Amino acid sequence: MRQRLVVMVKEPRPGRVKTRLARGIGTVAAAWWMRHQVARLLRRVRDPRWEVWLAVSPDRALRSAVWPGDLPRVAQGGGDLGARMGRIFSRRGDPSGSPTLIIGSDIPGVNRAHIARAFRALASHEAVIGPAPDGGYWAIGIRRAPPAGMFDGVRWSTGHAMADTLASIPSLRVAVTDTLSDVDEPGDLKIPADP
């Protein structure tokens, strides 16, 4: 039973990625930050204990040269974030129920230890969620096929996203793992002070 880590990525094109961040730093800078953030994140999370897949948006960017050529890719498809993640969970292609963990690509602090803890939690729980301080979450995983109604009624990009997601899966035993910050706004960027 091979564990699968799926990283949600969006093609780093100015004006099409990290639009809230771009309002403060500009569209080119936001796209540049995202492109380099994804490259750093993929270096930090690759590990022989799990497969790393990319869930790519928009679908036409599936063949983009910006993504590492050795990683399997799947199109996210349309709909809101819940529809896209639900599709990823539903088409894992493994009837045995290999654990699948989905993470965002805008989590600068994530590393192998965080991923390993989330997968360990899935050994004894049906789902796992990694909170973000803003009320959302950086990771969600399930051990088997997703239940009907997963992600129904979730208010995405709000401080209610995690609570709404948990409310959508009341029948699952859910573990809560590490809290990590994502980058949505310019204030979320950690810029070191000059020495």
UniProtKB/TrEMBL annotation:
InterPro entries per UniProt: Nucleotide-diphossugar_trans, Trfase_1_rSAM/seldom-assoc
Superkingdom of origin: Bacteria
Pfam families registered for this protein in UniProt: DUF2064 (PF09837)
PANTHER family xrefs: GLYCOSYLTRANSFERASE (PTHR36529:SF1), SLL1095 PROTEIN (PTHR36529)
Name this polypeptide is given: Glycosyltransferase
Organism: Primorskyibacter flagellatus
